[in-house]
């Protein structure tokens, strides 16, 4: 049964890697993703500096933290809504890092330790120190900041990723608790190691897989040894693949249509060249300056043309 489940998992990962609409191609292989690591790291350093200097403030809006989290939330669908955990909820008064200076400094110490350290044991120790403070409303969503500091140590975190992990492994990880996140992290690392040739040492890859499963794009392989359930699951995979191919073709056609409609013709090219006559035909009206002589000449020219068409000249001869 374990072998069958492992084979099914590999089939799922391979299909996921080929899917142009899945996070592997749309986000993990995105060129701008790696570039954003540097800017986000600098932003986190600025948050630490502001907290240490006492200039961070007591509001999320307008803070250096808002700038960093906004950059993370722009990282495609997988991080959409990443700012929700840091928004101030006045009725619940969470997360309690804006009104409580001690909690704010504890948050700053976590970020500072993760900026300065590169060793797994030190990073996990810093996380446990923050967890011991029991800062209300400040849970594992902070891991999305830490991922951009240490992508090989800390996986990204959101509801869809947790749902995907539970669906694939049969676990029952709950949201909002650091101990649950750390246990899930161990499971994610084990899953990543088992299929390392298809994933990456960057935990963003396996995080993207879990996100797509948890958001419903892919169904998890059946855990029971049931041939009928396995066949139905494989049929669903094939269907998703066909839909992905059709969607990719539709997007390509849409992009081509946008390019065609916005394309400015090159008037110097052979295709769009304007073919102009070398000589002006006698019947072409001549544009003259609007003076008396020009007006008289224009009227005379029109009279001559009308006379020729009637078979007469201006003197009335046939």
Your description of this structure?
It is a single chain. This protein has helices at 2-18, 23-28, 31-53, 64-73, 101-116, 120-133, 143-147, 159-169, 178-194, 203-214, 227-262, 292-309. It is mainly alpha-helical and 318 residues long. It is flat and about 110 Å long. 26% of the residues are buried.
Short description:
The chain is mainly α and 318 residues long. It contains 12 helices and no strands.
For this entry, give a set of tags.
single chain; mainly alpha; 12 helices; 0% strand
The major sheet is characterized as: none
What would the average pLDDT be, to the nearest integer? 83
Helix vs. strand class: mainly alpha
How do the SSEs run, as a string of H and E? HHHHHHHHHHHH
Give helix % range. Answer: 55-70%
Residue runs with pLDDT of under 50 for 5 or more positions: 260-277
Secondary structure tally, helices: 12
Strand content: under 5%
Overall form: flat
> C-alpha Rg, in Å?
34 Å
Give the arrangement of secondary structure elements:
Layout: H1 2-18, H2 23-28, H3 31-53, H4 64-73, H5 101-116, H6 120-133, H7 143-147, H8 159-169, H9 178-194, H10 203-214, H11 227-262, H12 292-309
Helix pairs in contact: 3-4, 3-5, 5-6, 8-10
